[in-house]
Every structure is written in structure tokens, then in C-alpha cells.
Specification:
single chain; globular; mainly alpha
Length: 139
């Protein structure tokens, strides 16, 4: 579904109506509780409201909203001291820009999958190093 807004008329309420349920699902998949997900969603919309004047291209609304959401998730996990690579995720692959050019999406998918594998391998390596440092006594 393509979202078309007039930037001057766009309000936080309009963005909430179009994105809140999708964002809540996106956030719930990356946090440990529904309560935390709802708190993060609230933080996301506060940031959207505070920075809506910075969005100058209405075609980038979806990307902009998901970038704010990812950054808010990163902040949440950073405060908890959790490794971030498993929680960052990506915005949904279907939005207005990709509907217009599915060949481009298909071209990029092998790179995206390879990147995801690399991130997972890095996360596992970091996890094992942290585990060894905390569990295994030093000689």
C-alpha cells in the first residue's frame, strides 16, 4: 500500500493510524515483553512528533519511520547492555518503493541474506567470547 501525504499536513495522528499496529508487531518481535514493546512504541511516536519537521520527502516516510523505530530499539537494548546485532532487524521488504520495482528487490535479496548470515556469525562469535570471559576463570 502506498502512503501519500502532504508534508505540511502530515500529523503524528495520521502516522499513528497508518503505522502503529505494524510497528508494534515489529517491536514485539525484538523485545522480551509486550509492556516493553508498548513503551518503545510510545517513545518512537514521541520522536516522530518531535522530528516530523525533518522529513522533507514524503516518499521516504516509511523508511524514516522504521529508521526511528530501529534506533529506538537499539537505544533500548543498549541501556539493558544486550548485544545489538540480533535485535536490529530491517524494515519490511514490501513498501511503496519496492512495489514499484520488484526486480530490484530480487536482485538485492542474495546480498541481504548474505549480510544477515554474516551478522549472525558475528553475533555468535561475540556471544562466545563474552561467555568465555564471564564463565571461564583466567589462569
Amino acid at each position: 500500500m502506498a502512503y501519500v501525504y502532504k508534508i505540511k499536513r502530515m500529523t503524528t495522528e495520521v502516522i499513528w493510524a497508518n503505522f502503529s499496529s505494524k510497528l508494534l508487531g515489529f517491536i514485539k518481535a525484538r523485545v522480551d515483553s509486550s509492556g516493553n514493546a508498548e513503551d518503545i512504541l510510545q517513545d518512537v511516536f514521541i520522536k516522530i512528533h518531535e522530528h516530523s519537521h525533518q522529513l522533507s520527502d514524503e516518499d521516504k516516510l516509511t523508511s524514516w519511520v522504521y529508521q526511528i523505530t530501529r534506533n529506538t530499539l537499539i537505544d533500548f537494548h543498549r541501556k539493558k547492555g544486550v548485544l545489538l546485532t540480533e535485535y536490529i532487524g530491517e524494515e519490511p521488504l514490501v513498501h511503496q518503493n519496492m512495489e514499484a520495482n520488484p526486480q530490484f528487490v530480487n536482485c538485492l535479496m542474495p546480498f541481504v541474506k548474505e549480510f544477515q548470515i554474516s551478522i549472525e556469525m558475528l553475533w555468535r562469535k561475540q556471544f562466545m567470547e563474552t561467555f568465555r570471559k564471564r564463565i571461564m576463570p583466567r589462569s
